[in-house]
Design a protein that fits this description.
The protein has helices at about 145-150, 445-450, and strands at about 5-10, 20, 35, 55-60, 80, 105-110, 155-165, 165-175, 180-185, 190-195, 200-210, 215, 225-230, 235-240, 250-255, 265-270, 275-280, 305-310, 320-325, 330-335, 340-345, 355, 390, 400-405, 415-420, 430-435, 455, 460-465, 470-475, 480-485. With about 500 residues, the protein is mainly β.
Amino acid sequence: MVLAAFVLAACGGGEQAQVFQATLPGDVNQAPQYTATPSRTPTFTPTPTLTDTPTLTPTPTLTPTNTMTPTLTPTPTLTLTPSHTPTLTPSPTNTPSPTATQPLHTLTPASALLNPPSFTIEDALLSGPTGWSCGEFPCEDDVDGFLRKIRVPDGFEVAHVGQVPGTPQQLAFGPDGRLYATTILDIDRRGAVMVLNDDGEADVYSGGYVSPVGVAFQPGTDVLYVTARATIEGPGVVYRVERPNDMPVAVVDDLPCCWREIDNQANGMTFGPDGMLYVGVSSLTDAAEPDNPRTQQFAEPVPFEASVLRIDPHTGDYDTYAQGIRHPFDVTFDSSGQFYTTDSGTLNGPGDRLLAIDEGGHYRFPYWRELGCVECPLTRRDIDYADTLYNLPDYTLPRGIAAYTGAQFPANMFNEVFVALWHDNGSGQRIVRVAPDAIPDDAEELAAWEPPVFMTGLIRPIDVIVAPDGALVVLDSVYGHVWRVTYTG
């Protein structure tokens, strides 16, 4: 088994360095494992061929014996000479396999059987305004200052993993145990996929993208998928990369895009239990504002806009899994196969929320009047709307999301959903955790309920994922620092 280790800087300078072990032995419960779904193999079709053909041989004729006496000459008759009976000789022909180069892999669900016993987790403390090494705002290399500021609940520890250049977007672990990240490197939104090495430094793994966001490895393979734009104005593209430094190949190149240069496109993605690729695609507007207000009151959503798509990664065929989601920035599955996504509201209204997605569901955008968006189109009563799982504080701008399916955290945290709240509105700049079963049903209790705070002291947390060893890994889009949270008990 491949092991990858990061030697991490210790907080305070007097402690021993920690080792970031990216994978564990196979007998330890880890993130979901993968099993192959076999594809059809080539078959041989027999082609008939004739080895011998029948031949005709004439019998001898009688000639006259006496020229004076006429005799009758019998009419010649034809007889068949013995020949072989025709036989069929198999001739092998190749029938193409109906699947592509790699079979789809299905997930083997994880369980909490090997997790530590349940433990009451208190909220992480809020971080104060002071404590940085270089003033009121941290310097880029102020790792010690960050480690003094970042807070997690008792029983957990934070370590620095490394740093991604530019403005990083999302993370994924590769089959080699290393961390991969999409990042935007310049003001023209040009970007790349970077990989963190053992020393915490990042190298380019694949480049040449415009506004890359989502990143995911196909289970059981080394094949990487990336969401981006074809140009700064779209359309949205899902790329496939077979090997390092290969030219990305477009699997899908016609997705709806974009509202602005810096927002709303094909976003986060993940492979589902069925081996299919699930991708969040944002809306083309803020509140369905029309291109031509003189002739239109509202813009009509176009097909596949503001939705989650299900894509066959081999063929590029796709359909709508769910719709009515304005800005599904990131997506995740828990161990039971329940699908979740974050969603951001309009600029001038509420709508930041966590959604538990069911296939075929419609989640209200752009018909958001009941959520407080007075500029949005009138609610259509001919649509059977699905419910919101939890309305997050307004203007927190939820970004990365991960359902915890690792074996390291206490059992009561298994299948909890961790959400990165990006904005600095007083309720953001933190990681919160949501146990779906803990959300109150009573309206009054729900109004007073808040999700537990798991991590504070961050600047702009943009993604959160579960490591192969069960740790939680958090990415900050300012300075690109990557943090790792472990459970110490």
